[in-house]
Amino acid sequence: MQSIYKDAKYTEVPYEEKLSLFNEVKGDMRYSTELYGCYECGICVAACPSARFYDFSPRVFAQTMAREDVNSFYELLNDNVWDCSQCFSCTCCPRQNNPGGIITIMREVAVNNGLQSAKDALRAYSRIIYKVMTTGTQVSPDMLQPDFFPDWGPDVRDVSLNLDVWRRAIPPETLHTVELAWDVSEKTQLELYMIWKLTGNLEMIENVDEGLYMILEEVMEELLDEHGYDIDDFENILED
Amino acid sequence: MQSKNPIQLNVVNQNLKVKKAVDREFQLPKNPPTKDYRKELFALEAAGEIEIIRVPEPFVEVDTKYGRKKKIPIEHTWHHKSCGQCGHIPGYSTSIYWLNREFGLDYYDPRDQTSCTAWNYYASAASNPAAQAAIACRNFAQAKIDGYFPLIHCGTSYGHYKEVRAQLLHFPELREQVRKILDRLGLPFVFPEEIVHYSEWVHVMRHRIAEKQTRDFSKVTATVHPACHYHKLISEDAIYDRDLYDGQRTAIVTGVVEALGAKVADYSTFHDCCGFGFRHILVSRDFSRSFATIRKIERMKIEADPDVTITHDTGCVTTLDKSQFSTQAHNRKVGIPVISDAQFAALAMGAHPYLVCQLHWHGVDNVPLLELMGIDHEKAWKEFEEVADKLQQDPEAFLTWEDV
Predict the structure, then answer these.
(1) Which of A142, B44, B77, B314 has an alpha carbon within 20 to 30 A of B96's alpha carbon?
(2) Residue-number span of the structural domain to which A88 is assigned
């Protein structure tokens, strides 16, 4: 089947390679609960925020997957999948489809296979992944820097200048933090590292950002070691 | 060839029994289109697979989308914090705690809690269902150990945990993986009877909050933005009320705004997302900014001209508030303060706008709103600056609950 895109970019990529990735998406346990068919009614497109500002359509995802159009799938996997807002407004589908859920699976497949498009999409995002995987909180007060959020106005500069004092001027004890959103106990961070290790999450990161993977492994190994654990004892249970 | 009897278009068939919209009465479906997740959870418990954390008494029962009842606990709550709220909008979480304290309710603010990590998951996909479910269940296990019931502060966490619940119920292999992980961590495999969002707690407390109201909000006009992960992602948990929007939209947030005497103004893009996008708000903000201001804020401004917009999620407050600054350069119709329902309720009950509600962390100028609420913002800011000066002198000192 030819791609629906007349200007398809990835015609040189072997069909077998595309099919393998398509089958990975289809083989995910969640897939059977995300797609039931498509009326082409476009309700999902009307509800979709990304469709208003990008050349993006949840209906095309549902149609492409339902028709098993492997060539168009590969175009979407590389050129559209990162435009989705993951708001799940598209779950208003009268066939109970979840195009946003299909996209979640496709993104995971893109990351697991280290696709260049995934690396490009996540390049600016690595410090966020570092923060959430090492601390258990995704955004922290010290991220509010004028050079990172120049478009958020002068309040970001005020917060940044007064950060230490303003954080101590908040009543809950758990919020007197600057590098974490709240004070996460070391025991809990340790348990989080074990979960990342046991579920192969570090290997996922290695596929898209080897430098970040090495830093994460070092940070986690150090804390586990401090508490008498060997990082190599936590093998990926999903491979069983 | 043209048919001899073409189908007539745009012709009203007088025999069709069609009721005008105003005469229609909304009926809940006799058979909800989804299975009752509680029955499925309790079946797993009966089979010895998982332990269910019961909603503690006292609780209030509310109607949800398909007419089922949902229990919302009043106290003994384990506050599952939000990284976006605590990190960038600290008055949001502080207001939730302040309300609990004002009512003298038993709650717990744990350190043994991670975020759900779903902001990252929806942004980067650098995780998988087993890790996400294990993180959820680790938090729930800790709540069980601490002896409290989880109350979820973040809309993303709330939505994601509903997804995790659906996956755990549907896929035995996922339950097996999570069980193995929790065994390695030495934790019990537990799951709460209900996933409860803090705004649901605010909703059921709204009349008690109104009883303790000290500030008059009758001059305030507000628009409401409901979070997508609250009422679209696994929609059956969301609170609906026949007395609000005739049960056609979620009653969340609107209920408390009305109870506090403010006017709720409608606008045409009520159901639209805020434009957060998870990855977009951090690394592709041109999209978030455009959607938030053009589809939401500007429509509100043109159609309702509110004094404030009230929402109930981390991402929504962030996106709707922070997107407005640079859009002014394009002469867009912006300039609506954005706060959470918890901050709105706390202000109604007399909370300090800066020491408790921490409104100086918000972007849009909220001074006109405070004036409408009858708050002396200049005096209040001076009080905050005095506290900040004292803290500046003593690097070991902190503001405490007793101070506020």
Answers:
(1) A142
(2) 15-113
> B interface mutation test: which of A131, A139, A140 has the most B CBs within 10 A?
A139
One domain for residues B193 and B288: no
Q: Which residue of B has its CA nearest to A110?
A: B125
Look at residue B16 in the predicted model and tell me its pLDDT.
64
Residues B101-146: tens digit of each pLDDT: 999 999 999 999 999 999 999 999 999 999 999 999 999 999 999 9
CB contact under 8 A, B83 and A50: no
3-state secondary structure (DSSP) of residue B221: strand
CA-to-CA distance for B309 and B400, rounded, in angstroms?
Answer: 29
Q: How far is A88 from chain B (nearest CA, A)?
A: 6
Q: Look up residue B88 and give its two tokens.
A: 């960038």
If one counts every other C-beta atom within 10 angstroms of the C-beta of residue A152, the result is 23
Instruction: Find the radius of gyration of the CA atoms of chain B.
Output: 23
How many domains in chain B?
A: 2
Q: Which residues contact A96 (CB under 8 A, 6 or more apart)?
A: A36
B162 touches chain A (CB under 8 A): no
Question: Which residues of chain B have a CB within 8 Å of the CB of A199?
Answer: 127-128, 130-131, 134, 177, 181
Instruction: Inspect the interface and report whether the beta carbons of B128 and A194 lie closer than 8 Å.
Output: no
CA separation for the pair B342, A201 (Å, rounded):
35
Strands (E), A57-126: none
Same domain (yes/no): B223, B369:
yes
Q: Are strands B59-63 and B69-73 parallel, antiparallel or unpaired?
A: antiparallel
Amino acid found at B88: H
> Terminus-to-terminus CA distance in chain A, angstroms?
36
Q: Is residue B87 part of a domain?
A: yes
Q: How would you classify the pairing of strands B51-53 and B59-63?
A: unpaired
One-letter amino acid of B383: E
What pLDDT, in 10s, does the model give residues B146-203?
Answer: 999 999 999 999 999 999 999 999 999 999 999 999 999 999 999 999 999 999 999 9
